[in-house]
């Protein structure tokens, strides 16, 4: 946990993913070794066979087989190294030292440690079923016919810093002002209309920039589409899915592309004429977003999301929707901007940001649908579940069967909609800065 906290404190996306995957792997390995493994065995501890001076002061009394410490160490190392291969060498050395110490102090036989290590390694690798690893290369996108405007010191750039988002702050705004002395830096917060500020800034500039998370980027993309301006994205939200797919991991990446005039053209999704960069959905997911937002002020977004995932499906209700003229009873309906992969699990990342299609995913509200869905997600078999459907389309007409307004979540933000809307695409609509490939 200390190592995970240290990785998280770096603020780097790969390090934070390594921390999360390491802790998740460790939780699974601990359950398998300490609850299941020890519960099925009754092997005595070998401490009587080692000198008294080498023994632990407090010798465990439960089963010796398998070693929970070895399982936890191996699981964390494998999980973290999946995201950051540079951790593999020192991690393996540390995990080996943990295993050796369990034998030297007489609390485990070597076979206990080997079994625990195998359980931990399997747990770490099993996370790939539920949380596929993001490729090291960014998503494919189209290079525009002409380079984007070059801005070495921020000349011609209006940069909106949404200080209510994720890691965005007044301190970050000051640092960016030092890096971009010629730019117009505007700090926005939750009490101000972000769209209005973006539109006002776009009137007298040739480059529109934004600092924030996916919701902030979505708002900026809408204004950039209206005005025809190129967009500079500096990730500073909680999740930053669009920036991650784009290949912009930090402010340094974004500013390097700005100074070189390197950019790509990407697709935008449309819902009722309003653009979105990632996903637009209705159903129980809207309830999840609402529940998370109510809790995140106290618990933080990550923990609030976990609590919402446990509570909302239990009391949620399916929705009667008409998709392209066909009536369907659904728990969830997603329309994603471009194809997400892997297809058989929860959407993880996009290999192409300009493929011209919507990736549509629904969960049917059949008998025991919730239980079957949870089981499919936990076993990594969602793609073969009978309650899960997915297809690609250029547009989808969505109507409420009862004529009532549909609650819609777009890029993590919730807003009401009409009793019907059309999901569509605007191919190659947005020019956004990204450093040159390779």
Remind me, CATH topology of the largest domain? Tumour Suppressor Smad4
List SSEs in N-to-C order: HHHHHEHEHEHEHHEEEHHEEEHEEEEE
**Low-pLDDT segments, ≥5 res:** none
- How many angstroms does the end-to-end distance come to? 35 Å
By secondary-structure content and strand pairing, the structural class works out as: alpha+beta
Strand content: 15-25%
Structure description:
The model has no long low-confidence stretch (mean pLDDT 87). It is globular and about 80 Å long. The protein starts with a helix and ends in a 5-residue tail after the last strand. It has 13 helices and 15 strands. The protein has three domains: 2-130, Vanadium-containing Chloroperoxidase, domain 1; 157-260, Probable inorganic polyphosphate/atp-NAD kinase, domain 1 (Rossmann fold, 3-Layer(aba) Sandwich), CATH 3.40.50; 279-426, Tumour Suppressor Smad4 (Sandwich), CATH 2.60.200. α3 runs antiparallel to α4 (88-104). The strands form two sheets. Strands 5, 6, 7, 8, 9, 10, 11, 12, 13, 14 and 15 form an eleven-stranded antiparallel β-sheet that branches. Strands 2-1-3-4 form a four-stranded parallel β-sheet, sandwiched between helices. 41% of the residues lie in helices and 22% in strands. It has 438 residues and is α+β, with helices and mostly antiparallel strands.
């Amino acid at each position: 946990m200390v190592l995970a906290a240290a990785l998280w404190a770096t603020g780097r996306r790969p390090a934070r993913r390594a921390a999360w995957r390491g802790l998740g792997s460790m939780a699974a390995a601990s359950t398998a070794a300490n609850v299941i493994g020890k519960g099925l065995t009754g092997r005595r501890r070998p401490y009587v066979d080692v000198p008294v001076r080498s023994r632990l002061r407090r010798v465990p009394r439960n089963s010796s087989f398998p070693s929970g410490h070895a399982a936890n160490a191996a699981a964390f190392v494998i999980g973290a190294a999946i995201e950051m291969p540079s951790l593999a060498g020192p991690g393996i050395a540390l995990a080996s030292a943990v295993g050796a110490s369990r034998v030297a102090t007489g609390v485990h036989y070597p076979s206990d440690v080997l079994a625990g290590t195998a359980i931990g390694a399997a747990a770490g690798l099993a996370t790939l079923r539920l949380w596929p690893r993001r490729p090291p290369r960014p998503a494919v996108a189209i290079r525009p016919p002409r380079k984007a405007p070059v801005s070495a010191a921020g000349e011609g750039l209006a940069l909106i810093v949404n200080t209510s988002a994720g890691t965005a702050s007044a301190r970050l705004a000051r640092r960016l002002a030092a890096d971009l002395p010629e730019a117009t830096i505007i700090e926005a917060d939750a009490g101000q209309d972000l769209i209005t500020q973006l539109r006002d800034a776009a009137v007298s500039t040739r480059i529109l920039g934004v600092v924030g998370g996916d919701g902030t980027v979505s708002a900026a993309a809408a204004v950039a589409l209206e005005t025809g301006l190129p967009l500079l994205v500096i990730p500073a939200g909680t999740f930053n899915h669009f920036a991650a797919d784009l290949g912009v991991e930090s402010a340094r990446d974004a500013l390097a592309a700005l100074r070189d005039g390197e950019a790509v053209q990407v697709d935008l999704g449309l819902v009722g004429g309003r653009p979105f960069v990632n996903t637009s959905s209705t159903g129980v997911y809207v309830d999840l977003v609402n529940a998370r937002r109510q809790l995140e002020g106290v618990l933080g977004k990550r923990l609030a999301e976990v609590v919402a995932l446990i509570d909302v499906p239990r009391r949620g209700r399916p929705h009667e929707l008409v998709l392209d003229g066909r009536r369907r009873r659904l728990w969830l309906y997603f329309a994603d901007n471009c194809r997400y992969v892997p297809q058989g699990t929860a959407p993880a990342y996009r290999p192409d940001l300009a493929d011209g299609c919507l990736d549509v995913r629904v969960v049917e509200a059949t008998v025991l649908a919730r239980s079957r869905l949870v089981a499919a997600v936990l076993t990594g078999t969602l793609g073969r579940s009978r309650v899960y459907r997915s297809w690609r389309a250029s547009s989808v007409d969505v109507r409420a069967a009862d004529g009532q307004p549909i609650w819609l979540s777009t890029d993590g933000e919730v807003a009401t909609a009409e009793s019907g809307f059309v999901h569509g695409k605007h191919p190659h609509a947005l020019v956004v800065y990204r450093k040159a490939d390779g």
